[in-house]
Amino acid sequence: MPSHLRGALDLSALKGSPAGQQPRPGASNPAPGPSSAAGAQAGSWVLDQATQGDLQQLVQLSSRVPVLIHLAAPSNPASPQLDDLLAPAVDAREGQLILARVDTEADPQVLSVFGLTAGPAVVAVLAGQPVPVLNQPVPRDQLDQLLDELLAAAAQNGVSGTVPPLAPPRADAQGADGTQEPAAPALPPLHQEAQDALDAGRYEDAQDAFRRALAENPADADAKAGISRAGLLARTAAMDADTVRERGASAPDDVQAQIDVADLDVLGGHVEDAFHRLVRFVAGHPGTDRNTAREHLVDLYSVVGDQDPRTAASRKALAMALF
């Protein structure tokens, strides 16, 4: 690996996707926050056919979890062997890290971003910083040790979150011991309808399906969280991040400007920043704007999950700001 991989990753070659190629909704807008319940979380943390658009978003997501990028060369026998080795190991860690596979023979310019001329190679990205990992298969126990060390290094650098699945369950899913895992339970029909809509980028349709599920069962916590997650994706789908952040910086008393920045922060994994921004707004702005910010903050709690310690800490801070 070239020495520049120890520095910041240059994304200049990934500014946009090739003409006609759009990032997949499940990858370019991964639902933030940890997994909420078993049925809704069945899936994989492996993207088998990542695009340039996916890669750019996944590097941003590396501020929350380590992202393994397999710069695959399908014609090289080592590349499918790496896939078979890495995929079950990543899924076994249930959202502590992500694996994205990029076919460099179909999309060779991706190699230049990493200073390489050929694959296969596996690079880990931690908070935008690339770290060389593998270029050939290794024994399973050695891989497990390597991934454990990677997670420990990530935690030391403040990258220790989790993310929900980014793809459907893999047909060849295996446990960490190499045995075949049982198939994940099927989602309830309305939840499956919502998930299909999310995968297609139809966020309003997903919200509608989750609302119907909640109407059928008012105690359906997954449907309630799904409404909030789909709403976040719908609100941020057309946002220009630079414009939103400039507006937030120049208009600290504008509740909508602060809400928009908080949405982007949660989407990008900067959960504490988003929560702190809105709690601070609530503390300093009595009146209707305070209630607007409070209600939006509560909705973001649903996105992240009530079991997340960041949600519990923010609820305490919100209570202090209100009273």
Give a brief rundown of this model.
The protein is of the alpha/beta class and 323 residues long. The protein is built from 14 helices and five strands. Strand 2, helix 4 and strand 3 form a beta-alpha-beta unit.
What does this structure look like?
- With 323 residues, the protein is of the alpha/beta class.
- It has two domains: 3-156, Glutaredoxin (3-Layer(aba) Sandwich); 194-322, Serine Threonine Protein Phosphatase 5, Tetratricopeptide repeat (Alpha Horseshoe), CATH 1.25.40.
- It is built from 14 helices and five strands.
- It has helices spanning 25-28, 38-41, 52-61, 78-92, 109-113, 140-156, 189-199, 203-216, 221-236, 241-250, 255-267, 271-284, 288-304, 309-322, and strands at 46-47, 67-72, 98-103, 121-126, 129-134.
- A five-stranded mixed sheet has the order 1-3-2-4-5, sandwiched between helices.
- β2 (67-72), α4 and β3 form a beta-alpha-beta unit.
- The model is unreliable at 1-41 (pLDDT under 50).
Q: What structural keywords apply?
A:
single chain; alpha/beta; Glutaredoxin; Serine Threonine Protein Phosphatase 5, Tetratricopeptide repeat; 2 domains; five-stranded mixed β-sheet; 14 helices; 5 strands; globular
**CA gyration radius, whole angstroms:** 20 Å
Q: What kind of oligomer do you see? A: single chain
Percent of residues in helices comes to: 40-55%
CATH architecture of the largest domain: 3-Layer(aba) Sandwich
> How many independent structural domains?
2
Topology:
Elements: H1 25-28, H2 38-41, E1 46-47, H3 52-61, E2 67-72, H4 78-92, E3 98-103, H5 109-113, E4 121-126, E5 129-134, H6 140-156, H7 189-199, H8 203-216, H9 221-236, H10 241-250, H11 255-267, H12 271-284, H13 288-304, H14 309-322
Parallel strand pairs: 1-3, 2-3
Antiparallel strand pairs: 2-4, 4-5
Helix pairs in contact: 7-8, 8-9, 9-11, 9-13, 10-11, 11-12, 11-13, 12-13, 12-14
